[in-house]
Design a protein that fits this description.
16% of the residues lie in helices and 36% in strands. It is an alpha+beta fold.
């Protein structure tokens, strides 16, 4: 499945016992020797009261992620197509909280992505006090300024003049593993077009640059809103397509709306 080109291998772990090692996850995600994907999604039985399912995300490098917005939209379509539920609205637990998913009349999925957290200890980042932006000196004396926040997973958001020419691979790799981010981070490169539109590319933790990143789009919306760049509703164009974000302000959840697409079904021996 994919959400705007951010692609996933999705497993039903409610009707079969499934535990994947990091090595097995890397094999599945390998685009030459395995199936090929950005992330692996595991649909598991509910573990928390008041939820319908549990949702796990494995990155292509075998590490586990706590959040994936594009995957969440695929999750809803998957469980309905597989006959695991007929509900149009679901609440699913993830490693760091819960998501609320709602199928729209046009087939789009609206996701309550939760409340963004800017507190340094919660992102986490190596800073003692919260600020609207931070600065780091990277290789060869290059200084970079960015916002930092958590959407259930850590994000940095850099404003750029032109997202197409931004050094996503170079800066993304340096910042993802920088000691400022003790749990690594997703690195977003945001171009603001006007108060309701922007362009975004994201270098994802454990996966590299992807065609779209739902939690990264939410992070860019939150950072841009606090900086005074965006209004309450924004459309962000990513390489794989456009997401709609809504956020009324601090202490409130961000809502993300976008598509999900099934590509094919199959079997794999692991």
């Amino acid at each position: 499945m994919h959400g705007l080109g951010n692609d996933f291998v999705v497993f039903d772990a409610t009707r079969q016992s499934l535990v994947l090692s990091p090595e097995q996850a890397r094999f599945i995600a390998d685009r030459h020797f395995g199936i090929g994907c950005d992330q692996i999604l595991l649909v598991e039985p509910a573990k928390a009261a008041g939820t319908d399912f549990h949702y796990r995300i494995l990155n292509s490098d075998g590490s586990e992620s706590a959040q994936c917005g594009n995957g969440a939209r695929c999750f809803l379509h998957f469980v309905r197509e597989q006959g695991l539920t007929d509900k149009e609205s679901l609440k699913v637990s993830v490693r760091n909280g819960a998501l609320e998913l709602q199928l729209q009349p046009d087939g789009m999925v609206r996701v309550n992505m939760g409340v963004p957290n800017f507190e340094p200890a919660m992102v986490p980042i190596a800073a003692e006090t919260r600020d609207t932006s931070y600065r780091l000196m990277l290789d060869e004396g290059h200084e970079v300024e960015f916002a930092a926040l958590s959407m259930g997973n850590p994000h940095a958001v850099i404003r750029v003049d032109d997202v197409y020419s931004a050094p996503v691979a170079e800066l993304g790799a340096q910042l993802e593993t920088h000691s400022f981010f003790p749990e690594r981070a997703n690195i977003g490169f945001l171009q603001v077009l006007d108060r309701g539109h922007g362009r975004l590319r994201v270098f994802e933790r454990g996966a590299g640059e992807t065609l779209a990143c739902g939690s990264g789009a939410c992070a860019a919306m939150a950072a841009g809103r606090l900086q005074g760049w965006f209004d309450e509703a924004v459309e962000l164009a990513l390489p794989g397509g456009t997401l709609r974000l809504e956020w009324s302000g601090e202490g409130q959840p961000i809502y993300m709306t976008g598509p999900a697409q099934k590509v094919y079904e199959g079997e794999v021996e692991i």
